[in-house]
Recover the amino acids of this structure.
RNA sequence: GCGGUUAUGGUGAAGUGGUUAACACACCGGAUUGUGGUUCCGGCAUGCGUGGGUUCGAUCCCCACUAACCGCCCCA
């Protein structure tokens, strides 16, 4: 039996790779525009990093990590997300000591989660993410959201919905937590098993439950918005004001609860048109305690991550095409043994002169060689055979209009460069 | 991790318990000793996801496994 690709992974074939290049180029351009610098961190890290960073109670850590021991008996994990690594690097290289703050950074790379694959969910997937470390200014919250929107719009996505919430600071969260427990505890038996477990661990997540979505207590549950203390409320108000003044539409959703433990204050998602159940294109939020949690000084931070796989699906649903028109300047058709010997030499000359050029390698007949030239979208075909070699001239055919010229070998590159 | 659907060539797909597994597209060749995108003709699955079972005989029936898709959970 032939070996198959691991479950939940996929190959990007040549016909699709150019889309990825375009998307990655767009991401880099937008980051340059917003003055975010690339940082590259390893694809695996100490398992501890994610346990402490992402949070022990999260689904990611509890059941989705690709963990292994290396030959030195170290516990390592293929990264399930990017923020923990970036914060680790920020602390490890003492980037908090750099004069330039906040450190505005981005990454594009593979992430790994052991999940049941379906459209828009893979075991290896690719995230583009940005992190701004060191600033607690509400305008950076707005900036990071706008960066993501700019990126999507640049690629032609229109059907986007920004959803916002605030989880408040630790004091606000604690107050809300108590209120939630008090609200649900008397009737928790009417809820699903998961919710019963959530009650003590993370009652916030009950609000996210799809099973008990219609339970009357859901509608009357205490909203985090009502439990924000003054500082938290004030901060959130400033973020919203900036977005308003920039003309950014958003929807407030007090039940927007992100799955990672490190979030506080502003959280957000961008939803898009997508196939099936998955519509979250991008998610992120503020994580003010994370740097100190991972051994650095008390430092605020905020970031987002988005999936390129889901972006591609959304582009598809919206009918946005990233198709380009790859073409070849020139294709050499060789007829006969002598010409076949000459072809690679001539081809090399064209290439060295900067022309995108190719020839047949399948011993095809003339007709077949022309077909290949057509598939490669060659603008010109250079035909050489015995007759041409005798007079040191090639027949050059313009594939668009079918016209032909005789061109001396010596002037071939000049001729083609002028025509292209 | 749970539930449902599916699995035939490079692709999209018909199909039957019994000798040669439709059709279309793509590809290769010929009509046109040396010219593509049109047309006509020809070629192209020792094989029907993998392993086992039932049977005189299985691509078709049964079981297991694997994978894909959809839903749940959760997320990007």
């Amino acid at each position: 039996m032939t070996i198959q690709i691991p479950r939940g992974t996929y190959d990007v074939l040549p016909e699709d790779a150019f889309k990825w290049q375009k998307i990655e180029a767009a991401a880099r351009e937008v980051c340059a525009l917003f003055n975010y610098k690339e940082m590259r961190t390893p694809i695996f890290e100490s398992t501890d990093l994610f346990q402490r960073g992402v949070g022990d109670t999260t689904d990611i850590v509890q059941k989705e990590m690709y963990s292994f021991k290396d030959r030195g008996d170290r516990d390592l994990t293929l990264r399930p997300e990017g923020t923990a690594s970036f914060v680790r690097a920020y602390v490890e290289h003492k980037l908090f000591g750099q004069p330039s703050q906040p450190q505005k950074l981005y990454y594009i790379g593979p992430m790994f989660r052991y999940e049941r694959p379906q459209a828009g969910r893979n075991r290896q997937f690719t995230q583009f993410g940005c992190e701004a470390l060191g600033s607690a200014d509400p305008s950076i919250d707005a900036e990071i959201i706008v960066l993501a929107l700019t990126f999507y719009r640049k690629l032609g996505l229109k059907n986007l919905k920004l959803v916002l919430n605030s989880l408040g600071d630790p004091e606000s969260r604690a107050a809300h937590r108590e209120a939630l427990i008090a609200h649900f505890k008397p009737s928790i038996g009417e809820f699903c098993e998961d919710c019963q477990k959530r009650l003590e661990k993370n009652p916030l997540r009950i609000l996210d439950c799809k099973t008990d979505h219609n339970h009357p207590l859901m509608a009357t549950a205490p909203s985090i918005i009502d439990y924000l203390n003054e500082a938290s409320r004030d901060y959130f108000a400033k973020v919203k004001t900036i977005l308003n003044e920039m003309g950014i539409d958003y929807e407030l959703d007090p039940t927007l609860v992100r799955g990672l433990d490190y979030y506080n204050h502003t959280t957000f998602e961008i939803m898009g048109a997508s196939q099936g159940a998955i519509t979250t294109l991008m998610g992120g939020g503020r994580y003010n305690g994370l740097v100190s949690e991972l051994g650095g000084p008390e430092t605020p931070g905020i970031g987002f991550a988005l999936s390129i796989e889901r972006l591609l699906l959304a582009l598809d649903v919206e009918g946005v095409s990233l198709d380009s028109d790859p073409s070849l300047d020139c294709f050499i058709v060789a007829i006969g043994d002598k010409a076949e010997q000459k072809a690679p030499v001539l081809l090399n000359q064209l290439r060295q002169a900067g022309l995108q050029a190719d020839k047949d390698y399948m011993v095809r007949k003339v007709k077949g060689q022309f077909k290949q030239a057509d598939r490669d979208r060659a603008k010109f075909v250079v035909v050489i055979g015995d007759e041409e070699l005798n007079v040191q001239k090639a027949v050059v055919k313009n594939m668009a209009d079918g016209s032909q010229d005789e061109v001396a070998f010596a002037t071939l590159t000049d001729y083609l460069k002028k025509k292209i």
Remarks:
- The first strand of chain A starts at residue 37 and ends at 38.
- Residues 14-34 of chain A form the longest helix (21 residues).
- The CA atoms of residues 143 and 332 of chain A lie 52 Å apart.
- The two ends of chain A are 49 Å apart (CA to CA).
